[in-house]
Design brief:
- It is a single chain.
- With 125 residues, this protein is an alpha+beta fold.
- It has 2 domains: 71 residues, Double Stranded RNA Binding Domain; 44 residues.
- It has 2 helices and 5 strands.
- The termini are far apart.
Length: 125
C-alpha cells in the first residue's frame, strides 16, 4: 500500500465541524460533533451547549495535530486473471481443445438438421 502523510505547511486558520443538536427529555441540549462521537457537551440551552462544545473541542485540538494522508488504493486484479495460462504446460490441452471443437461441430450439425426438419414441415403445410 502506498501511503504518504501530507503535513500542512502552516496551521489552518479555520476548521469547520458539523454539530448534531439534540433536545434531551430533561430539557437540556446535547451537542455532538459529527464524526467525533466522544466530543459532546450538554447545556441548558443550545447556545450554552455549543459554547461548551467549542471550548472542549478547542482544548482537544490544542493537544493534537491534524494531518492529511494520501492513500493510493491497490490495483485490483481481474478475478479471472489468476486462471489465465494455467493449462499452458498441460500436454493434453491441445487434445482437449480439439475435442471441444469437434463437439461444437457435432452440435452445430444437429441444430442444422433440426432447422432443416422445421423448414420441411413448414413447407409441407
Amino acid at each position: 500500500m502506498n501511503l504518504s502523510v501530507l503535513t500542512p505547511s502552516k496551521k489552518p486558520s479555520e476548521l469547520t465541524y458539523d454539530v448534531l443538536i439534540e433536545n434531551q427529555e430533561d430539557g437540556k441540549v446535547l451537542a455532538t460533533v459529527i464524526g467525533l462521537p466522544d466530543c459532546q457537551a450538554i447545556g441548558a440551552t443550545k447556545e450554552e451547549a455549543l459554547t461548551s462544545l467549542y471550548e472542549r473541542l478547542t482544548e482537544r485540538l490544542a493537544k493534537a495535530e491534524i494531518v492529511s494522508i494520501k492513500i493510493e488504493p491497490p490495483k485490483a486484479e481481474h478475478p479471472w486473471m489468476k486462471f489465465a495460462g494455467m493449462f499452458k504446460d498441460d500436454p493434453q490441452f491441445d487434445d482437449m481443445l480439439a475435442d471441444i471443437e469437434a463437439y461444437r461441430r457435432e452440435l452445430d450439425a444437429e441444430m442444422e438438421e433440426y432447422y432443416r426438419k422445421l423448414d420441411a414441415e413448414d413447407e409441407a403445410k
